Amino acid sequence: MAQNTVGIVGLGHMGAGMAQTLLRHGYTVLGIDVGAKQQHAARAMGVHVVADVAALCRQTNVILLSLPMAKHVQQVIAGSGGITEHAQAQTLIIDTSTSEPEVTRSLATLLAPAGHQLLDCPVSGGPAGAVAGSMVMLVGGEETAFKRAGPYLEVLSSKVVYMGASGNGHAAKLVNNLLCAAHLVTTAEAVALGTKAGLNAQDLIAGLNAGSGRSAVSEVNFPRWILNDAFDSGFTMQLMRKDVGLAQNLMHDMGLHLAMSEQVAQIWAASEDNLSDDNDFNYIVKSCGLGD
Predict the structure, then answer these.
(1) Distances (CA, A) of 146 to 67, 91, 289
(2) Which residues are CB-neighbours of 212 under 8 A, at least 6 positions away?
(3) pLDDT tens for the 292 residues of the chain, in order
(4) Domain 5-166 matches domain 171-287 at the CATH topology level
(5) How many Cβ atoms from other residues are within 10 Å of residue 14's Cβ?
(6) Residue 153: CB partners within 8 Å, gap ≥ 6?
(7) Of 15, 124, 278, 280, which shows the fewest CB atoms inside 10 Å?
(8) CATH code of the domain made up of 5-166
(9) What is 171-287's CATH superfamily?
(10) Alpha carbon separation from 281 to 15, 198, 290 (Å, rounded)
(11) Are the CB atoms for 122 and 99 separated by under 8 Å?
């Protein structure tokens, strides 16, 4: 089996970006997507678009998933016509979706008796990071699978952190996204307070970034997408609301009542009333004191 052939299921912003990076590093990339627009764009960049999972599995035993939700991952892996039906021996599945830890663990258990391995590798860095190969990956799964996936992860990311057992990568990503969601809320409120007190927003962000109040949100999101009104990160309100909801479910599953995190989750859930699913996720600042 040629190890320079990778299949990708899901050729949206992230999947297409990762395909572009793999192609740039000399890999042959196969792909499938339900959208005609995504298929056309993928073909234009050199992806060999195939008809279905069966066709993908016939040509590679390294498959990368870039899908919206856990239910889509379940369908592609275990559903009718899915990977479990058509996989070659010792197939490695690299799931870059932000999914649910328990779903990931159950799928890994399902795949193991047949000799297949599943890594949960949720990513940070957005479409720009996918294209540049500069994403951050938090990885869960068997260490042997992690080592086997090393060459692919190295190409796709600037930093890889191995979190241990299956599902741990997804759990860590939910915690990360909960923090990001919280930082957007608190930084927006801080800027609203500062500007009300007469400070220039850009000067205030520069000051925060020089001090202990800084975060990735103040250092990246505010200068790149918020203060300039660009709001074009490529990550939507719908996706972040989903991730915050999953983090809230994880809190409940763990029997924890975390007051600040619960408040953040409520703010994001309530934003559905006035911020469209398709809005950039940074638009949450409009609900936190920085409205038009």
Answers:
(1) 20, 13, 43
(2) none
(3) 446 999 999 999 999 999 999 999 999 999 999 999 999 999 999 999 999 999 999 999 999 999 999 999 999 999 999 999 999 999 999 999 999 999 999 999 999 999 999 999 999 999 999 999 999 999 999 999 999 999 999 999 999 999 999 999 999 999 999 999 999 999 999 999 999 999 999 999 999 999 999 999 999 999 999 999 999 999 999 999 999 999 999 999 999 999 999 999 999 999 999 999 999 999 999 999 887 6
(4) no
(5) 25
(6) 94, 121, 137, 139, 160
(7) 278
(8) 3.40.50.720
(9) N-(1-d-carboxylethyl)-l-norvaline Dehydrogenase; domain 2 (1.10.1040.10)
(10) 19, 27, 14
(11) yes
Q: Which residues are catalytic?
A: 173
Number of C-beta neighbours around residue 232 at 10 A: 12
Q: Where are the domains of the chain?
A: 5-166, 171-287
DSSP for 255-281, written as a single string = T---HHHHHHHHHHHHGGGTS-TTSBG
